[in-house]
Design a protein that fits this description.
It is a single chain. By secondary structure, the protein is of the alpha+beta class. The protein has seven domains: 280 residues, Spore Coat Polysaccharide Biosynthesis Protein SpsA, Chain A (Alpha-Beta Complex); 125 residues, no CATH class; 150 residues, Sandwich (Immunoglobulin-like), CATH 2.60.40; 107 residues, Immunoglobulin-like, CATH 2.60.40; 125 residues, Immunoglobulin-like (Sandwich); 183 residues, CDP-glycerol glycerophosphotransferase, N-terminal domain (Rossmann fold), CATH 3.40.50; 188 residues, CDP-glycerol glycerophosphotransferase, C-terminal domain (Rossmann fold, 3-Layer(aba) Sandwich). 24% of the residues lie in helices and 30% in strands. The strands form 13 sheets. Strands 1, 2, 3, 4, 5, 6, 7, 8, 9 and 10 form a ten-stranded mixed beta sheet that branches. Strands 16, 17, 20, 21, 22, 23 and 24 form a seven-stranded antiparallel beta sheet that branches. A hairpin with a 4-residue loop joins strand 31 and strand 32. Helix 11 runs antiparallel to helix 12, helix 16 runs parallel beside helix 18 and helix 17 packs across helix 30. It is found in: Cell membrane. Its main location: membrane. It is a peripheral membrane protein.
C-alpha cells in the first residue's frame, strides 16, 4: 500500500497539468512503497482555491489570497509598523469562460487538462500508482474531499494542477513529519510566471527558518501560509478535521482552521512548492462577494475557542478584513453600507477589546471610522494610506505619550479620541551592523541604531546600554558601548552626507567575559542593545548586517584550541560562538577508486565528544537531503570516503536557475547522535576537483566561520583578482569545465543584464567591463544606480543554457571592495554574503544632495534664493521627468535649432534622470534632483516640458512655461479622475497650483482642446497646433529615418515588424514611480506561430522597470530604451497596444492597429475611465486573449479591411492638425517668428 498520496486537483481545462504531473515523476524516493497520485478533476472554475480579493494577476505582496501575509497599511507585530504605502490590486473582471461547444479554443482547452490526466492514469511512470476520480467536482474543496477519500496513503498532499513540486519536496516533508510526529509539515514557496521564478514574499516570514512541532499560537505569521500545495498532512489528523462548507474562493480559511486544529506543525525553510501566478476573480466592491468573504471570516472566528479567536481576530483585522476595507474607496455607497453593517456593527462588536487595543494606530483609526460610519472621513483616510503621505506622518508628543499624526488628529469635529493615535510598541528599533572586526584581541561591533521617528539630534536624547546574552542559560554580561555621531540612518556613513545625528554605536566585547565559571566552554552569545530615547526604552539584539564584510565577520583564536567565531544565525542575529576545537580536517582530496572518483576526508579527533564519532554526515543545505558515510578511526585520527557522484547527482537547479542547492554541511555524528562540526584550518588549501565528465565539479570550501563545506554540481567560475584599469573593471579567475561560458552582470530587483567581454586561456579567464560606458539603443550611457550580481551562463553539451553563480576565492574576498570614483558617480566591486560578487553603482547625486533632508534643504533654502537671481537666457527641456530625449520637447528643440540665427547657439539644457539619457553636444545635462535642477527651474527663461512639475515650482513673472503634455485623450486625466491612486489627499490642490504655472498648453486636436481646458482647469492660452512629435510622419526624410532605425535595431529586411507598446497600470508597481511589466502576451506561442516571418518589438512604458523576456532567436526585440518612439512607428507594420495614447500618433501611418485589452472593464470602470466609447470608436479590434492577437496578426489583411472605415473616421476626428508643421506653429507663438 502506498505510504504517501498526492491528490492533484485540476480544472478540466487546465493547460499546465502535464508539467505538474512531470514534477511528481521524480518523487518516488519519498516513500518506502510506491507513490500514489489521485487525479481529481473540477468542472471549469476560474477561481483557484484560496484566491480572493480582486481580479488581478497574483503577484507577491498583493492583498488576500494565498499571499495573505502581504503588507497592509498600519501593520501589526508581524507586518511591521505600517510606514509604507500599499500596492492596490487590480479590480479587473476576468473573461467569461466559453460555454461548451461555443469555440474551438474552449474545446482544445478541455482536451489539454482532462486528456493529460487520462493519459497519466492509463500509463503512469514507474513507481507511481495513478487513479482518476470518475466524475468532475463542482469545486476544488469538493475535489479535495473526494480525492482524499479515494486515496490510500498514510500521508496526504493536495496539489493544484497548475503548480509544481520541487524534486525533493515529498522526501523532505515526509522525513521531517515522520521524525517529529507532527500533524502537518509545511515548506517554503516560490512563485513563477512567464517572466521567471522568484521567492514568495508572503512565505518569507512564516517559512524563513526551520521549526519543529510549533503551532500558530507560537508563530502567528503561519496564519499567512494558506496554500495546500506546500503541505503534507498526516491522514489521521486530516480525517479528524471538521468538515466545513465554504465557497472555493474562501477555502484558504479552511487551511487556517486546520492550522489552528494542529497541535504540532513542522516548518521547513527550503522551497517545496512552485506556485503559478493566477488571475483572481473576486471583486470586493460587489455586495454579494463582500458579504460572503466577511461572513466566512466571522464564521471562522466564532468557531474558535476564545484564546485562538483573539489570535485570529487580530490577524483578520490586520489582513483579511483590511483587504476588503482597502477596496471600499472603489465601492459604491451600498457596498460600503453593507461593510459597515457586517464589520462595524457585527464583527467588531464581538472582538475582544484587548485585540483592538493591540492594533496599530492606523488600523485602530480605520475601524473606529467604520464603527462610527464616518463615510467621508474613511474615504479620505483610505486615500491617505495609499499615498506617499503615510510615510511622512509625523510623531508628536502630548505629555508623556507619543501620537502619530494621521488624518483628523485632534480634530474636534471628528470626535475621534486621541488614544486612537497613540503609539506604543509600534515605535520599533531600527538597527543595522556596519562593521565587525577584531581590535587588540577584542571584538568590536559598530553600526547605527535608533527608535523610529525619534532621531537623536542631540547627544542627550539617546542613551545606550549593551549586554552579551547567553540565550541558553539566560546569563547577561554588561559590555562597553560607545555612542558616536554618524550619518542619518538611510544614508551611507560618510562625513560629507547631508545630515548626521547620534545614532551610531560601537560595542566592544572582551572574550574573557565569555568564560563560564572561569573556563572556556562551548556557548553561543548574542549582543543586546538597550535604547533609551526621550523616556522610551526598547531592546534590540544586534542583527541586520549591511552587505559585504559585515556579513562574514572574522574568527580568531583566543587561547590554545579555543576560538571565537562570530556568525549570523538563521534569524539574522549576530551569534558570537565560543568554540573549543573538537575535530579538524588534515586532508580533503580527490582520489580514484574502483567504483569511481571519491573524496577522501581525513582529520584529527581533538576533544570529546569527537572521540565517540561513528559516522560522517553530509547535509545538503538548507536541509533537503542527508548522506551518511562510515568513519574509520585510529589513534585519534579519522577517515571517510565520499563518492563524488553521490553528491554531484543530488545537486538541485530548478526554477530557471533561481532555486539552486549545491552546498553540503560536513560534520561528525557520535553514537549518542550528537554532531561535531569539522574545522578546515586556514593553513589547509581549499580545492576544486572535476567530477566525472567535464562540466561538473566538487569544491572543498571553507565557510566564513572556518568550517568545512562541500559544493557539488555545475562547475562554477571562481574569481581570483579584481581591479580597476582606468574606467574598466578587470576580473581574473578560473573555470575548469569545457562548457561555453558567458559572464553577465544582472540587476537586482528588476530584469536587466549586461554581458562582459571574456577571454579564456585553458582553465583561466579574463573579463573586462566598463560600467560607465554601456552601449544602448539610446547611445552610450552609464549603468543606472543599483546593485548588479555577477552570474555565469553555461551552455551544456546538449545545447541547454544554465545560470551558475560566480564565486570569489577566499584570498580575493579579503581584498574587496575595490572602487572607481568618477565625477558623475562611483562604481564599487564588492561581495555580498561570503563570496557573491556584486557591482554597486552609486547615484549621480553628490553625497550632500542625497536623502530626504538634503532634498528638503535644496527645496526650501536653496531654490528660494536662486529665484531671486537674474534669469538666464536658456531653454530648459524635460521629457518624461528626465527619462528620455524625445516627444514634443525634442521636436521643439529641433525646430528651434533649425531656425538658425540666434537660436543656432542659444543655450539649451535637458533634464536627465540618473544619467540615463544621451544628449547632443549642444545641450547641457541637468541632473534630476541635483542642485542644477533647482537652479534651472529657478533661473531658465524658457521651460518646455511634457511632464508634471514639482509642487514647489513657482514660475517667475518673466519666465515662460510651455506644457506640451504627452498623451491624447482616451484615458481620463487631471481633475476628471475622481479616485487618484497612490497620490496624496491634496493631489487636486497641487494640480491646480501647477497648472497656474503654465503659460501655454499644447493641444493635439480641436476635439482634445475642451477636455484639456476642463481636466486641468487651465485658464491660460491653449495652443491648438497638433502635437509637434507627429511632424516626423510628414518629414521628407522619413524614409531615410526609417532605414536608419531598421539598421540601428538590426531588423531583418524581409520580416514584418509588430510593435507591442502597452501603457502602464496604475495599480501594478514595485515602489513609487517603478511599475511592473504586466505582460499578458504569450511570447512563446507568438514565436511558434509568427517567428518565421515576423519580429516583435516590445516597448515598455517609461514608468515600467522590468526588462522584456527573450524568446526565440531574433524574434523579440526590447526597444524600450530607443529614444524616440516616433522613429519606431516608421518601421512598424502593425501596432499592438491597449489604452496608450500612441494610437492617435500611429494613426498617421495608416497601418493596422490591434488593441490587446484584456482588462478593459477594470481599466475603464475602476482605474482611469475613458473620454469616449473606445469599443465603438477604436480603429482596430479589441482583443482579450493572447491567442486572439496571434490570430489577428495572421489575418491582418482581413482585419485591416474590416476596420478601414473606422480607421478613417478615427483619423478625421483625432488627427486633423497633423501636417508636419505643429512644432513650427508652437515655436512661432512662444519664441517668435524670427
Amino acid at each position: 500500500m502506498p505510504e504517501l498520496s498526492v491528490i492533484v486537483v485540476f480544472d478540466v481545462t487546465e493547460p499546465h497539468l502535464s508539467p505538474c504531473l512531470a514534477s511528481l515523476t521524480g518523487q518516488t524516493a519519498a516513500s518506502d512503497g510506491d507513490l500514489e497520485v489521485v487525479l481529481a478533476p473540477v468542472r471549469h472554475s476560474p477561481a483557484p482555491e484560496g484566491e480572493h480579493g480582486t481580479v488581478v494577476r497574483a503577484v507577491d505582496g498583493e492583498d488576500g489570497t494565498e499571499l495573505a501575509d502581504a503588507e497592509v497599511p498600519g501593520g501589526d507585530e508581524e507586518a511591521g509598523t505600517g510606514t509604507a504605502p500599499v500596492e492596490e490590486a487590480d479590480p479587473a473582471e476576468g473573461e467569461e469562460p466559453a460555454e461548451s461547444g461555443e469555440s474551438e479554443a474552449a474545446d482544445t482547452l478541455r482536451e489539454e487538462g482532462a486528456a493529460a490526466a487520462r493519459a497519466f492514469a492509463a500509463n503512469p511512470p514507474r513507481g507511481i500508482e495513478a487513479t482518476m476520480v470518475g466524475h468532475s467536482s463542482a469545486g476544488r474543496a469538493e475535489a479535495r474531499r473526494i480525492g482524499a477519500e479515494a486515496a490510500s496513503g498514510e500521508y496526504l498532499m493536495f496539489l493544484d494542477g497548475a503548480d509544481r513540486l520541487t524534486s525533493y519536496a515529498l522526501a523532505y516533508l515526509l522525513e521531517t513529519l515522520k521524525a517529529s510526529g507532527a500533524d502537518v509539515a509545511t515548506g517554503n514557496v516560490y512563485r513563477f510566471n512567464e517572466l521567471g521564478t522568484r521567492p514568495s514574499r508572503a512565505h518569507q516570514k512564516p517559512c524563513g527558518r526551520q521549526r519543529t512541532c510549533t503551532n500558530v499560537r507560537s508563530v502567528p505569521s503561519l496564519l499567512g501560509d494558506r496554500l495546500y500545495g506546500n503541505k503534507l498532512w498526516r491522514r489521521s489528523f486530516w480525517e479528524n478535521l471538521p468538515r466545513t462548507d465554504v465557497a472555493d474562493p474562501d477555502t484558504d480559511l479552511a487551511v487556517v482552521r486546520a492550522l489552528f486544529a494542529a497541535t504540532a506543525v513542522d516548518v521547513l525553510p527550503a522551497p517545496v512548492h512552485l506556485c503559478r501566478d493566477r488571475e483572481r476573480t473576486d471583486d470586493y466592491r460587489d455586495v454579494a462577494t463582500l458579504t460572503r468573504r466577511i461572513a466566512a471570516v466571522a464564521e471562522l472566528s466564532s468557531a474558535l475557542p476564545e484564546s485562538d479567536r483573539n489570535v485570529w481576530d487580530h490577524r483578520a483585522l490586520c489582513h483579511d478584513v483590511c483587504s476588503v476595507l482597502l477596496r471600499m474607496d472603489d465601492a459604491d455607497q451600498q457596498a460600503r453600507e453593507r461593510f459597515y453593517e457586517l464589520v462595524g456593527n457585527q464583527y467588531l462588536g464581538r472582538v475582544d477589546r484587548h485585540v483592538l487595543d493591540r492594533l496599530s494606530p492606523l488600523h485602530r483609526l480605520n475601524y473606529y471610522l467604520v464603527r462610527q460610519r464616518q463615510d467621508a472621513r474613511l474615504l479620505e483616510l483610505l486615500t491617505f494610506q495609499k499615498s506617499v503621505e503615510l510615510k511622512k506622518a509625523p510623531l508628536v508628543r502630548r505629555g508623556v505619550h507619543y501620537y502619530i499624526k494621521y488624518p483628523f488628529f485632534e480634530d474636534k469635529d471628528s470626535g475621534i479620541p486621541r488614544e486612537v493615535y497613540r503609539v506604543g510598541p509600534d515605535l520599533k528599533v531600527r538597527q543595522k551592523t556596519e562593521n565587525v572586526e577584531w581590535r587588540g584581541g577584542q571584538l568590536v561591533v559598530s553600526g547605527r541604531v535608533g527608535i523610529a521617528h525619534l532621531r537623536a539630534r542631540r547627544r542627550w536624547q539617546q542613551q545606550l546600554v549593551a549586554f552579551a546574552v547567553n540565550p541558553a542559560t539566560g546569563r547577561r554580561v554588561s559590555v562597553p558601548v560607545r555612542m558616536r555621531r554618524a550619518a542619518e540612518y538611510r544614508l551611507a556613513d560618510r562625513p560629507d552626507a547631508a545630515r548626521h545625528d547620534y545614532g551610531g554605536f560601537e560595542v566592544t566585547v572582551n572574550p574573557e567575559k565569555l568564560r563560564v565559571s572561569g573556563s572556556w566552554q562551548a556557548a553561543e552569545w548574542q549582543l543586546e542593545l538597550v535604547v533609551i530615547n526621550r523616556g522610551i526604552v526598547r531592546r534590540r539584539t544586534i542583527a541586520n548586517p549591511v552587505s559585504g564584510q559585515p556579513q562574514r565577520p572574522p574568527y580568531q583564536r583566543i587561547a590554545g584550541d579555543v576560538w571565537i567565531r562570530p556568525t549570523w544565525n538563521q534569524d539574522g542575529k549576530l551569534s558570537i560562538d565560543v568554540d573549543p576545537l573538537r575535530a579538524r580536517v588534515i586532508e580533503c582530496r580527490r582520489e580514484n577508486r574502483d567504483g569511481g572518483a571519491g573524496l577522501r576526508i581525513a582529520g584529527e579527533l581533538v576533544a570529546p565528544p569527537a572521540a565517540h564519532a561513528r559516522e560522517l554526515r553530509l547535509t545538503r543545505l538548507p536541509g533537503t537531503a542527508v548522506l551518511h558515510y562510515p568513519l574509520r578511526c585510529t589513534g585519534g585520527r579519522f577517515e571517510a570516503s565520499v563518492p563524488v557522484s553521490e553528491v554531484v547527482e543530488r545537486a538541485v537547479a530548478e526554477g530557471e536557475g533561481q532555486l539552486s542547492q549545491e552546498q553540503w554541511r560536513v560534520e561528525l555524528v557520535t553514537h549518542e547522535g550528537n554532531t561535531v562540526p569539522l574545522i578546515l584550518p586556514d593553513a589547509l588549501e581549499t580545492a576544486v576537483y572535476p567530477a566525472d565528465g567535464n562540466q561538473q565539479e566538487v569544491a572543498v570550501q571553507r565557510t566564513s566561520t572556518g568550517h568545512l563545506q562541500l559544493r557539488a554540481g555545475w562547475a562554477h567560475p571562481v574569481l581570483h583578482e579584481a581591479r580597476w584599469s582606468g574606467d574598466e573593471l578587470e576580473l581574473v579567475g578560473s573555470y575548469t569545465a569545457a562548457s561555453e561560458l558567458e559572464l553577465v552582470f544582472a540587476a537586482r530587483g528588476r530584469e536587466e543584464e549586461h554581458l562582459l567581454t571574456l577571454h579564456r586561456d585553458g582553465g583561466t579567464f579574463r573579463a573586462r567591463f566598463s560600467p560607465s560606458r554601456i552601449p544602448t539603443l539610446s547611445g552610450t550611457l552609464p549603468l543606472s544606480a543599483g546593485s548588479y550580481q555577477l552570474w555565469a551562463r553555461v551552455r551544456a553539451a546538449d545545447g541547454n543554457t544554465s545560470g551558475v553563480r560566480v564565486e570569489i576565492s577566499p584570498d580575493s574576498v579579503r581584498e574587496l571592495p575595490v572602487s572607481l570614483e568618477k565625477p558623475e558617480r562611483s562604481y564599487t566591486f564588492a561581495d555580498a554574503g561570503f563570496d557573491t560578487p556584486i557591482l554597486r553603482v552609486g547615484s549621480d547625486l553628490f553625497p550632500e544632495e542625497r536623502g530626504s533632508f538634503a532634498q528638503r534643504q535644496l527645496r526650501e533654502n536653496v531654490y528660494p534664493v536662486l529665484r531671486t537671481q537674474e534669469l538666464r537666457e536658456e531653454v530648459f527641456f524635460d521629457s518624461f521627468t528626465g527619462r528620455q530625449f524625445s516627444d514634443s520637447p525634442h521636436s521643439i528643440y529641433t525646430a528651434l535649432r533649425s531656425r538658425g540665427g540666434s537660436w543656432a547657439d542659444y543655450p539649451m539644457s535637458w533634464l536627465v534622470s540618473d544619467g540615463q539619457v544621451s544628449l547632443p553636444d549642444d545641450v547641457r545635462q541637468v541632473r534630476y534632483h541635483g542642485r542644477e535642477f533647482y537652479e534651472s527651474l529657478a533661473r531658465s527663461r524658457y521651460i518646455v516640458t511634457n511632464s508634471r512639475q514639482p509642487a514647489w515650482f513657482d514660475r517667475r513673472s518673466d519666465q515662460v512655461v510651455v506644457q506640451t503634455w504627452h498623451g491624447s485623450m482616451l484615458k481620463r486625466i487631471g481633475f476628471d479622475i475622481e479616485n487618484i491612486r497612490g497620490k496624496s489627499r491634496d493631489y487636486h490642490e497641487k494640480l491646480s497650483w501647477e497648472t497656474q504655472q503654465w503659460d501655454y498648453l499644447v493641444s493635439p486636436s480641436p476635439w482634445a482642446t475642451p477636455i484639456l481646458r476642463r481636466a486641468f482647469r487651465f485658464d491660460g492660452e491653449i495652443l491648438e497646433t497638433g502635437y509637434p512629435r507627429n511632424d516626423i510622419f510628414f518629414s521628407p526624410d522619413r524614409d531615410a529615418i526609417a532605414e536608419r532605425t531598421r539598421q540601428r535595431l538590426g531588423l531583418p529586411p524581409d520580416k514584418k515588424v509588430v510593435l507591442y507598446a502597452p501603457t502602464w497600470r496604475d495599480d501594478k508597481y514595485y515602489t513609487r514611480g517603478k511599475h511592473k511589466l504586466d505582460l499578458h502576451l504569450d511570447l512563446y506561442r507568438m514565436y511558434e506561430k509568427l517567428g518565421e516571418d515576423h519580429v516583435l518589438l516590445v516597448r515598455r512604458h517609461p514608468r515600467v522597470v522590468d526588462s522584456v523576456p527573450t524568446v526565440g532567436t531574433n524574434f523579440v526585440y526590447d526597444v524600450s530604451l530607443y529614444p524616440e518612439i516616433m522613429e519606431l512607428f516608421l518601421v512598424t507594420d502593425v501596432l499592438v497596444t491597449d489604452y496608450s495614447s500612441m494610437m492617435f500618433d500611429f494613426a498617421n501611418t495608416g497601418r493596422p492597429m490591434l488593441f490587446f485589452t484584456y482588462d478593459i472593464e477594470s481599466y475603464r470602470d475602476s482605474l482611469r475611465g475613458f473620454y469616449f466609447d473606445f469599443e465603438e470608436t477604436a480603429p482596430g479590434p479589441l482583443l482579450k486573449r493572447s491567442d486572439d492577437v496571434i490570430d489577428a496578426l495572421l489575418n491582418i489583411g482581413e482585419v485591416s479591411d474590416r476596420y478601414g472605415s473606422a480607421y478613417r473616421r478615427f483619423t478625421d476626428q483625432f488627427c486633423p492638425l497633423d501636417d508636419g508643421n505643429a512644432a513650427a506653429r508652437v515655436v512661432d507663438r512662444v519664441f517668435g517668428r524670427g
